[in-house]
Amino acid sequence: xxxxxxxxxxxxxxxxxxxxTDMTAVPSVRIDARKYSRLLAKAQPRAITSEExxxxxxxxxxxxxxxxxxxxxxxxxxLLDLLVALIEKFETEHYRLERSSKATPLSIxxxxxxxxxxxxxxxxxxxxxKGLTSEVLNxxxxxxxxxxxxxxxxxHVSVELFI
Length: 163
Prior knowledge:
7 helices; single chain; disordered N terminus; alpha+beta; 4 strands; 163 residues
């Protein structure tokens, strides 16, 4: 969320400007202030300062995304944008991964898994199968470009780490 100095009563949630005086999204999406307030009270979004809080926010995002973006109310969509912005800020600050000359895509994947206490079974859905997950983690198969994109999305990091 960022303050828009040109319109003192507007906030930006992701790519959407919201007028906070009447909670009308610019240009035509109308947000019900009561519904949005209830969502905010339930989610309690705030600056993320710990891995536990990041995981809580990720769970909220997963919960919203499971409804399908096209099925979200305008209020849920605004909350989703806010949560994603908070998560991205935290993860950019705390997961500064850069590809060094010694780091391989596999070593980066293993490090990310260890940092999040993930098991190979947690990646089955990302890779599409138990067998492919095993082959990649055992170094028998390289990470394809499509799987690199899927891993980057899963871990919220740059795809270049896996290529």
